[in-house]
Amino acid sequence: MSQEPINKQTREFQAETKQLLDLMIHSIYTNKEIFLRELISNASDAIDKIRFESLTNHDLLEGQSDFEIFIVPDESTHTLTISDNGIGMTYDEVVENIGTIAKSGTKSFLEKLKEKETATDNELIGQFGVGFYSAFMVSDKVTLITRAPGQAKGVKWQSSGDGTYTIEEVEKETRGTTIIITLNDEFTTADGSKENFLDRYTIENLIKKYSDYIRYPIKMSFIKEEKPKDEEGKVIEDAPATQTVEVRTLNSMTPLWTRNKNDISAEEYHTFYKNLFHDWEDPLKLIHSKAEGTVEYTSLLFIPSRAPFDLYTQKSSSGIRLYSKQIFIMDNCQDLLPEYLRFVKGLVDSPDFSLNISRELLQHSKQLKLIGKNLEKSVLKTLENLLTNERPTYEKFWKEFGKALKVGAYTDFQSRDKLKDLLLFSSSHATEELTTLHDYIERMSENQKVIYYATGKDRASVERLPQMELLKEKGIEVLYLYDQVDEFTIDALQEYKEKKFQSISRGELNLDDIDSPEAKKDTEAILKENESLIKAIKEHLKGKIADVKISNRLKSSAVCLVSDDNGISLSMEQILSEMNNTMYKASRILELNPNHDVFTVLKDLHEATPDSEAFKDYCDLLYVQAMLIEGLLPEDPISFANKVSNLMARKDK
Ligand SMILES: Nc1ncnc2c1ncn2[C@@H]1O[C@H](COP(=O)(O)OP(=O)(O)OP(=O)(O)O)[C@@H](O)[C@H]1O
Q: For the region C, what residue ranges are annotated (predicted)?
């Protein structure tokens, strides 16, 4: 670094940051007081970091190891100052962390906010940490002065939230970060405004409410007015009062999880959760447990009420924090819970971990694996109990996180078995209700050999499938799969309680009466009788389909497209092609309904002139019809449209 300080520069915020600041300033969030919680949480994180790093590099502390956060309200300047002696930031870190939005969650938050479809602003904003920028909700100007340990110079950053900020190097004696908020007039006087953030009593209450558990003292000075006392210790009433400054610690610093769970109220748990994980809503469920024995730990886990927007993107990280004897080691501790449970938030505190354990070592630690196993077990047990005893709550959970469990059952071989009883599906059994696989089996008749399922984008499109008609008529229940992952999950499970899964659009239907030897004989007879017709259709559609069959699954529709039992299904082919993977193709089988009038027309056309244009057009039209029913687009829509038009104008011969 050069000796000369870097002079003041004015820089522009990144476009997305500007957008976020605009939202803050124009105040979409009514609960403005949370700005203090956010800044204190940042300060506490910064102290956590230096505390941790100083274990291996004591010099970082620069001789100052009493960690603290200090708050100074100043009536004369209308400022509120929050200082910490944490890790601070270098010049580049300030630019990186404060001028840009690096977090994908924030980006997707902004996108969602633009759409404004799913929730109100308050709900949305509550779902992600508004962080540092929340200071702009209450201020005209924010100044940040910071110095990282070992750096000769500090950095001063300042902005009025108007799209630009200034940054320069400055002298700063002590390590850490000081944030000076110049409060907007609205927040400096008690009259006419809801909040006065210069009022010590207000600040004290806010700290109690949001930041009581913070592990470092949050201090503020109070002016104490006292009348002097005489030699006997009696107050001298007529003497003028003297003012003394008294520094008080505002928070109790007792980590909630170390307390006895019978002494903790639901509200305390919820406030703790909301503060630590920046959620706006209470958690759906919490699990607080202590384990002693081979491995000793306390865990406090929360199942949120709502899934974050980025849960299913790869960037989403685990929400588990690791502590050792109440000292923070790391957040996003991925190895504690399997990937599919990454929506679970919480913490683990175990004296069995050394504080300076590296992520790499941790990954291989036996204790971590053991704790992880127990945590997974207790989350699944909690979900099982919810499913059995609190079905509406479980369904609420399922709506938010069901997909995570389905992905788990598909990708996590070891957990598949544990997850299968927790899965819910729509089915033909009841319109509004979801079913477990267990309940499906319970309702099955003794003769039913397999569990039927159908895929489609929603209930209406599945119910319109021609293949459904027969099953409905026979009163056979069919699971409806709407989610892309569903079919992968079903494929991975293969069977449930020894009943295999069977797509209604694949292979044989395995229905007793239609697959009976007599029915088979019938189909074979029709096939034989129409051998040359079938051959001609197959020949004409060569390259598009693998086979033509006489169907035993159609009632009133003329055709349907199915795939065989090997390889992938048609719906999976579509999913893969949406992911730009066109390597895998389902083998298409065109099934014809021999009882449909179209079949007779086709037969007559073929018998009259085996290779007439009309016959070929009819084959094409039937094929495209079958594709459309499956939600597939015709390869040549113009030719299809022309053929339909010709038919409508009865120009075909
Ligand atoms: N007091 C501080 N000391 C050191 N670094 C800080 C401080 N405040 C903020 N930062 C840095 O700025 C970054 C951005 O802060 P911001 O509050 O916007 O988000 P965050 O804390 O990362 O996320 P979230 O608020 O969602 O937990 C932090 O990750 C941290 O690196």
A: 575-653
